[in-house]
Every structure is written in structure tokens, then in C-alpha cells.
Amino acid sequence: MALVVQKYGGTSVADAEKIKNVAKRIAATRAKGKEVVVVVSAMGGTTDELIKLAYSVAEKPSDRELDLLLSTGEVVTSTLLAMALEEMGLEAISLSGAQAGIRTDAAYSRARIQRVDPERVVAELDKGNIVIVAGFQGVTDEMDITTLGRGGSDTTAVALAASLGAESCQIYTDVEGVFTADPRLVPEARKLNEIGYEEMLELATYGAKVVHPRAVELGELFEIPILVASSFSDSPGTLIHGGAAMEVRNKVRGIAHDLDVAKITVVGVPDRPGIAAAIFEPLAKANISIDTIVQNASIDNITDLTFTVAKSQLDKAMNVVKPIAQSIGARECLSAAGLGKVSIIGTGMQNTPGFAARMFSALSEQKINIQLIATSEIRITCIIDEAKVGDAVKALHRAFELEIEE
Ligand code: ASP
Ligand code: MG
Known about the structure:
By secondary structure, the protein is of the alpha/beta class. The chain has helices at residues 16-31, 46-57, 63-87, 119-126, 153-164, 197-205, 213-222, 242-246, 275-285, 314-327, 355-365, 389-399; strands spanning 3-8, 35-40, 92-95, 102-104, 113-116, 130-134, 137-139, 145-147, 168-173, 194-196, 226-230, 238-241, 254-270, 293-295, 302-309, 332-345, 372-376, 379-385.
């Protein structure tokens, strides 16, 4: 029997009515003769509430306790959904991530899945059960409960789909699929029927919230087609798969934006080997992830080094960088929040001139100043003033004619 993995996000299971609605959708899939494994998120808002609760009893809750606490959100949803299915006369069982064999490393709050031991899930499927798995969590070899990082249920779903050999992984959410840009910013934004893994990975990494980048990465690695669709409608959604990336179209596929950007500039850095390492190694050790890095051409062997971090990490990063800047003889260390990132993404950009020029002139027509530029083979990213991000996304959508069906 063909197996599908379905994942329902927090807004899709936000209250009892919505959980019953999800149960009906699962029943319909089952009625088509499919075996079904379901992964759920915590009911909308629950994870945030649990975090708040933790910080109301402790200034710095311990990582282990925080992860065990947060894992309960998904357990609540999975049990309620199993009950709703049983109420409809279907056979269902809920499993925590640990029970479902999601084995992770011990990096609390950002654990990585090392393997999936699928025996229990397979045994329950063989008994005829619909298996509901609590997303976002796993267990270490020491039997401690971990979580995978915010939005981690998508990753659980794709990992399970890969280990069970599912025919597809369906991610149900509150939007109709992947759009050419955020439709809240650009009303003409168009839903994509399909997209390649590579393009989706860049879109998700650079700000599209619809599916977690780690899930896309796993999908690509194990060649699992991922459908992103709404749990509130029957529209067909967006299929993320390998085939789409093969057809190179001379076109931008989509625009991502991210408002969570701050930058740090180390001014007057001596230009000699080892300096970048001296700055970035301690940042890595402090678990601060760095995004765009730009080093200016040096004048008289002195240069400036600028990089971006998430706003929430700015203070921590400055505390790490300031003493280093002093010890390597840099002049000063400046920081700025209030930035945003806009990116154009498409495999059709590879080896094709003109995309950067078109992007920059679209931004300049809006009088938007570009502070930093970064590129990959299929992406160009500009760091700009946060307040201009909306205008930038609209202008780029127009400039690359993304409202026109390909
Ligand atoms: N409940 C977790 C979060 O809010 C995980 C998830 O929804 O995927 O981040
Ligand atoms: Mg979520």
C-alpha cells in the first residue's frame, strides 16, 4: 500500500474545530487506500507561550528542561488528533518523537536528526493504524528529549518520509503554496505550481517562511517530493521536486525577503593572513551564525570588514567582536540594526548576464540605497534599509515580470 506523510502546522491545528477538520482530511486520504503517517506542530501560539512560561520561572532556563517542556506542545496536538480520528471510527495512535524513533544529537534547541529507527511506526502501520507523530522533537542516545529548532516539524516530516520510503511528503499550512513573493506585500504574486529543491532552499533560507530550509535540504538529499498546500482548501498547492530544477528557464523564480538583519562593521582592520579567522572563529564558537560577509579592498594594508547577523544575535555578536577588534588593532566596531534583505532567486540566472543590473536599477528607481550585495549561482541578495523592503519587493516583482505565467 502506498504511504504518504502529511504534516499539519500550528495554524492548521490551532483549536478543537481545526483539529477535527484535519482529522477529516486524514480520513479522506485513508479512504483512498493510502497508509498515512501524520506529523503535527504544536497548536498555534503554544510554543511561544511555553517559552514565556519558562522565562517567568527562571532567568536562564536550562537547555535540557526547556526542550522537554517545548516538546509537550506537539505531544498535546498528536494525542488530540488521534482521539479525534478514533472518534470518527478510525484506528489511530499517537507517538512522541522518541517513540517514533527520531534519534538526534544532544544539541538542545537545535538538535540534528542523526537517524530514524522506524520499527515502531512500521509496526503500527502494519496493525492498520494511522500513525500521528509529534513533530519538532527527538531523543538522544542518553534518552534525553531534544527539539530541532523553531519550525522543526517540517524536518521531522521529511525525515520520516525518507526513512519510511513514502511516495510523498505533504506539508499543510495556512497558505495555498509557494508564491513568487509574499502576497501580503505583492498582491499580484503568483502561486507556483512547482519548484526545484535548489530554488526552494534559497527562497526558504533567505526569508520565505512557508517551509523550513532543513526540510527542503532533506527532501533533496533523499529525493522526496514535497507538496506544500493549504489545510483550509482543496487547491493543488506547490510541488517541490527534482524535475522542476532541470528545466532551465531564463527567469527569476521568486523573491524572498527577510526583516531580521543587523550588521557589524569592523573598521580599520589590518589586512594580513589570519585576521578573518581571528574574528569569525570566536563567533562560530559562540554559535552565532553569520550571513553576508564583505571585505573592502584595502588601502595601505588597512581594510573594513562588514557582516550581517540576525537582530536577536547582534548584542551577543558585538560582545564577542569588540575585544577581538581591539586586540587585532582595528580602529572601531560599528553596528546597525534596522536592515532588511531582498533576494531574487532562480536557476535561470546561472551564467546569464543582466540580472544584477536589472535588480540594481529597479532598486535605484525607487531611490533605495544598497548597503551590501551577496550572490550565489542562483541568487542575488541586497541588504537595504528595513523600511524600504516592501517597496523593494514590489519593484523587483514588477521588474522581473513575475506576475506573468511562465
Ligand atoms: N512548534 C514549533 C515551533 O513553533 C515547531 C513547529 O511548529 O514546527 O517552532
Ligand atoms: Mg510551524
